Amino acid sequence: MTAPAAPAPPALEIDDLRVAVDGREILRGVTLAVGAGELHALMGPNGSGKSTLANALLGNPAYEVTGGRILLAGEDVTALPTDERAARGMFLGFQHPEEIPGVSVLNFLRQALARRKGIEDYSVLEVRLRLLEWTKRLGMDQRFVERYLNEGFSGGEKKRNEVLQMALMEPDVAILDETDSGLDIDALREVAEGISEVRSDRPHLAILMITHYQRILGHLVPDAVHVLVDGRVVASGGPELAATVEARGFDAFRADPVGSA
Fold this sequence. Notes:
alpha/beta, four-stranded antiparallel β-sheet
């Protein structure tokens, strides 16, 4: 009799991760796992360690991992540099995307795709065609691709550009660091619809969405919600946990944890 196949490892696994910045410990043993095709929300107040986690996941050298592991599909990538993690299918959508004057969206993505796909001279025409396809799917002006990356972009345009990059890069794991930050109601809806469109194209995509608020979760219903306070996951649960956070605030979790850590 053939033994049953072992279950596939999570797309992203964070195992007892500890991270320090300038010698001060910020993350104090964070553990969570996101399966293929799942969307998890990580909520927490300012200073809880959310952006520290995002930076540590992508390998920012200013964030020192002092303990624990980061695994992509079962592979330990804790010691790998940023470009190696990206090549293995990790994507980070930044809270504050930087402007790069003189570099068009098209050329930026051509270089990024060459690294992701392992193709030294990625075709400009192929990238342009894929960009035009995705700008249409995301309801974006097709002239967008010729603009310099994030230069003069509104807050909503910057975040939609992050979604466009995620679509083109075809990651297996996406870390979205406060994608909803600074967006008005209409821009928030457009960004959420864009994320949904990318998920429909890549149903196995695992997403860890880092956010302060519940509002984007009204458009994107998570499979799980985690609450990060003082560098630790103090509660995990279903979508209803986000409503509890909204109603009770984060201080309630410091004194009265809800769910399981």
